[in-house]
């Protein structure tokens, strides 16, 4: 996947799905903190390289999962507090950009 897509396209689509669709739906049935935590866990779940769990030679670290949960929590809070998807998209773009710059 190209760097440009990873920095711009992926954050937009992930935020539209996880915050605008999943989190918005969860907020209709759960308290905000529970909805944000659930959507963050779902977000982290799709970022786990599952194949790595079965093969020792592939690199898998729970550190990346913790970082993704933290990013999901921040995006969820931004979405909830602002009542807009735009702040979480901007945050996610800068998060991905930073991860490429400091790789």
UniProtKB/TrEMBL annotation:
Signal peptide: none annotated. Pfam families: Rce1-like (PF02517). The chain crosses the membrane at residues 33-55, 61-80. Residues 3-97 form the CAAX prenyl protease 2/Lysostaphin resistance protein A-like domain. Keywords: Membrane, Transmembrane, Transmembrane helix. The keyword Transmembrane applies. It comes from the Bacteria. This is Lysostaphin resistance A-like protein. It comes from Formosa undariae.
């Amino acid at each position: 996947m190209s760097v440009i897509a990873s920095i711009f396209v992926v954050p937009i689509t992930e935020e539209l799905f996880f915050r605008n669709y999943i989190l918005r739906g969860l907020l209709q049935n759960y308290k905000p903190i529970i909805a944000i935590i659930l959507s963050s866990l779902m977000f982290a779940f799709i970022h786990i390289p599952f194949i790595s769990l079965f093969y020792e030679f592939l690199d898998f670290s729970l550190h990346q999962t913790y970082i993704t949960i933290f990013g999901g929590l921040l995006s969820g809070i931004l979405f909830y507090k602002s009542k807009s998807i735009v702040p979480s998209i901007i945050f996610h773009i800068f998060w991905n950009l930073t991860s490429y710059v400091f790789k």
